[in-house]
Design a protein that fits this description.
Blueprint (H helix, E strand, L loop, with lengths): L6 H13 L5 E6 L6 H9 L5 E4 L5 H16 L10 H14 L2 E6 L4 H4 L2 H13 L5 E7 L2 H9 L11 E4 L5 H11 L5 H11 L3 H9 L5 H9 L8 H10 L3 H12 L5 H8 L4 H9 L4 E4 L12 E4 L2 H11 L2 H5 L3 H30 L5 E6 L6 E8 L4 E7 L8 H15 L6 E7 L5
Parallel strand pairs: 1-4, 1-5, 2-3, 3-4, 10-11
Antiparallel strand pairs: 6-7, 8-9, 9-10
Helix pairs in contact: 1-2, 3-4, 4-6, 8-9, 9-11, 9-18, 11-18, 13-16
Length: 439
């Protein structure tokens, strides 16, 4: 698959590269695994000289020997002596940048925590002593969100405040997914597009895997996820075990319950018979995997709270794959595929709501987008999009099939919403229905 999108991010990185000619630049680039951070940087700088250090889990001395060879190739100068500490490599780079501009990318930067924690304090010392005269464009990337946050947001950490820019790479937007599937499967249906969104969440690596195998119909994609030895079957665990550490079992259980629809704290605690407030707080703030959702205009921050997994792939993985791992252990992949298939259209209908919320948000035309339901659950509105500046609002009912949309019922629900909340007085309100045909 060719490289798609990222024009804004590329422009920012190229601008940073230009700024480094006048003052040292230190960019922190984050984003979940497989999102395309390395490809972004390589595409941003094209054929320009770039030092790329990947932090593999090896002895520090072994890593440094490989870095030294790269430095010798780029500079044409020998790295004097046996280099065994990263601080020595970094000092050489900073000295080299005093003579000519250098762009250095350090990938999986958080892995130094496992190799030698003192790397960060050593880097701080070298950076502070040399940045004034160095034309360095330093980019550090990491995919373990909690660790990258610790390194750069914790005031106790040596590199806190040293970065000059922070970028978070996000999944492909709905418009980019449409562009990709249209290029590689011109005869696609909206059912195929919805499946691509549902199964990949716009994560570049997952999209690329389907594209490169020519699997862009919804049934083919679903088959590929559940086939034996599928890359996707272990992906959730591979991504998150390191994030959660030894408590991963509890976190996985909570995420699985949320994915299955047990999305209130009381519901989760009732099932697990234990308090989960601390875990939920970390899932929201530290790991950024779970979001708190409340009906629009809910006055209390602690009432009517529901939790949702923002990552579409992980939501699917916890709902079907993790929950039913016992089936995979005996090779019942086809049975699990059948099980997911039976519920697929109901589940994808729920994901369709998320598609339209994302699509509306991507226009930049609204100040708030949400949903609403009353306390009794008798009236529910799928999407409310509000532009407070223009004093207008759009209220939508979302159904897979357009024939199932009843605008008269939607208006009646909206009347209850408007009376209950007392909001949107004097706003121009438009009602509409959205179905899979409107993707």
């Amino acid at each position: 698959m060719r490289f798609f999108d990222r024009e804004r991010e590329i422009a920012n990185l190229q601008k940073t590269g230009g700024l480094s000619l006048k003052a040292a630049q230190f960019t922190v680039l984050t984003g979940r695994r497989r999102i395309g951070k390395t490809s972004l940087v390589l595409n941003a700088y094209g054929d320009a000289p770039l030092l790329y250090f990947f932090v593999a889990r090896k002895a520090e001395s072994e890593l440094c020997q490989g870095y030294a060879r790269q430095l010798e190739q780029m500079s044409g100068l020998p790295v004097i002596g046996e280099v065994s500490r990263f601080s020595e490599v970094f000092r050489f780079v900073m000295e080299m940048a005093k003579a000519k501009p250098v762009t250095l990318m350090i990938d999986e930067f958080q892995e130094f925590l496992k190799i030698n924690k003192s790397v960060y304090s050593d880097m701080q010392d070298v950076w502070d002593r040399n940045k004034q005269d160095a034309k360095i464009n330093l980019i550090v990337c990491g995919s373990v969100n909690s660790l990258m946050n610790k390194l750069f947001r914790d005031k106790k950490e040596p590199l806190y405040g040293r970065q000059t820019a922070t970028m978070k790479l996000r999944p492909f937007t709905t418009s980019v997914l449409k562009k990709i599937i249209a290029e590689y499967n011109p005869s696609y249906s909206n059912e195929d597009l919805l499946a691509l969104y549902l199964l990949t969440g716009g994560v570049a690596k997952y999209v690329e895997m389907f594209v490169d195998r020519g699997l862009l119909s919804w049934a083919d994609m679903l088959d590929a996820v559940f086939e034996r030895d599928s890359y996707f079957l272990d992906e959730g665990k591979a991504m998150l075990v390191e994030e959660f550490g030894r408590d991963y079992g509890m976190y996985f259980t909570i995420l699985s319950l949320i994915a299955q629809g047990h999305n209130t704290r009381s519901d989760i605690e009732g099932i697990l018979k234990t308090q989960v407030g601390g875990y939920l707080s970390k899932l929201i703030c530290d790991y950024e995997l779970v979001a708190k959702r409340q009906p629009l205009f809910e006055k209390s921050p602690n009432k009517n709270v529901h939790y949702a997994i923002g990552d579409k792939f992980l939501n699917f993985w916890f709902r079907y794959i993790y929950k039913n791992g016992y089936m995979l252990e005996i090779g019942a992949n086809d049975k699990l595929r059948q099980l997911a298939g039976k519920n697929y259209f109901t589940y994808s209908g729920q994901v369709l709501e998320a598609w339209f919320r994302d699509k509306l948000a991507e226009t930049g035309g609204y100040t708030r987008i949400g949903y609403w339901h009353d306390r009794r659950g008798e009236n529910e509105i799928d999407i409310i999009a509000v532009d407070d500046l223009e004093r207008r609002a759009e209220i939508y009912e979302v159904k897979r099939q357009a024939r199932d949309i009843d605008l008269a019922v939607l208006r009646a629900k909206a009347d209850v919403f408007l009376k209950t909340t007392g909001q949107l007085k004097g706003y121009e309100i438009r009602f509409g229905g959205l179905s899979i045909e409107d993707m």
